[in-house]
Amino acid sequence: MPQPSASLPAALSLTEINVLTPGAFVSHFGGVLEHSPQYAQAAAAQRPFASAEDIASAFGAAVQSDTPAAQLALIRAHPDLAGKAALAGELTPESASEQASAGLGQLSAEEFAEFQRLNSAYHEKFGLPYVVCVREHTKTSIFEGARSRLSNTPEQERAAALFEISRIARLRVLDLVR
Ligand code: GUN
Which residue's CA is the closest to the ligand 1 atom numbered 4? Predict the structure, then answer.
């Protein structure tokens, strides 16, 4: 899998974060939710924060209180795991490093084919990409999750995807605070 083309922002202290201009806050945290910097705009207005976990909670709350249509758009903003964007080197730096950390850049030909099959089945059933917080999983549990979540109802699957997105966002926030 090609390496990330852009780098992640260097972590800042809570004191520094609490006094950033709104624009600088969005530059710093704009990648926390995939291709969705509007949530960083909402989180900026919730300052001051007492901890990195509070910042992560602000992102989670902004997503939970958004409209169902916006939540679906956020799920759909995620690239497929080991998908076309990964092969073409078009992932965000956050997604590229997450996918690499779970070993998704070193799949055997059989594993790669199985991933493509699961991704397609997923899109066909739910009209969504399979989103999982890969840093909290192993390659094996990522595969198992895809197979078992395929039997979810659409409502269960939307809730599962939003839960995983809140976990992804939390880890991305923790990386950006020192
Ligand atoms: N889990 C962590 N990052 C990602 C991502 O970019 N895409 C998907 N589908 N799941 C993820």
Answer: 95
| Cβ(129) – ligand 1 distance below 6 Å | yes
Per-residue pLDDT, 125? 97
Distance 134 CA to ligand 1 centre (A): 7
Q: What is the pLDDT of residues 42-54, one digit of tens each?
A: 999 999 999 999 9
Q: Which residue out of 35, 78, 123, 137 is catalytically annotated? A: 78
CB neighbours of 71 closer than 8 A, spacing ≥ 6?
63, 158, 162
Give the number of C-alpha atoms closer than 13 A to the C-alpha of residue 49, restricted to the C-beta side: 24
Residue 2's pLDDT is 41
Q: In degrees to the nearest 10, what's the CA dihedral of 135, 136, 141, 147?
A: -90
pTM of the model: 0.93
Class of domain 14-176: mainly alpha
Asked if residue 136 lies in contact with residue 98, where contact means CB atoms within 8 angstroms, the answer is no
What is the chain's mean pLDDT, rounded? 94
Which of 35, 36, 95 has most ligand 1 atoms within 8 Å of CB, for mutation? 95
